[in-house]
Design a protein that fits this description.
The chain has about 120 residues and is mainly alpha-helical. Helices cover about 55% and strands about 0% of the residues. The protein is built from six helices and no strands. Helix 1 (about 10-15) packs across helix 2 (about 20-30). The longest helix is centred in the first third of the chain and has 14 residues, at about 20-30. It starts with 7 loop residues before the first helix and ends with a helix.
């Protein structure tokens, strides 16, 4: 489209992308002859796969462990969201304890009788 003389705005509207994305893609095409993502782009990992396994193992061994405790044990400066993300990738979800066990109809009846007796 750009080689046909279309404007960046017109191409962006046609492919449903921002003008900035079209411009960046066109610049890369004219510079390198490709539009593919560069290998290794993105943020480098702060923790290794070994650290990741350690995070998951700590959560499995002690379900009440906090993210702060895990972060201190790993020894790498990571944010708590990173720990949560790694636990979610391992299909581990936070477990909240019951505030109270649900009462059966029999329990409710006995409780009502006890209250009325007082």
């Amino acid at each position: 489209m750009k080689t046909a003389g279309w404007s960046t705005c017109r191409v962006a509207g046609q492919v449903d992308r921002s003008e900035c994305a079209v411009r960046n893609c066109w610049d890369q095409w004219t510079r390198e002859g490709t539009h593919a993502w560069k290998i290794g782009s993105g943020v480098t990992r702060k923790i290794t796969r070994r650290d990741d396994r350690r995070i998951v193992r700590q959560a499995l061994v002690d379900p009440t462990v906090t993210r702060s405790t895990i972060r201190a044990d790993v020894g790498v400066a990571i944010v708590p969201q990173t720990i949560s993300r790694h636990l979610a990738e391992a299909n581990l979800k936070s477990k909240r304890p019951f505030r109270a066990f649900p009462l059966t109809p029999e329990h409710r009846q006995l409780r009502l009788q006890w209250c009325q007796a007082k």
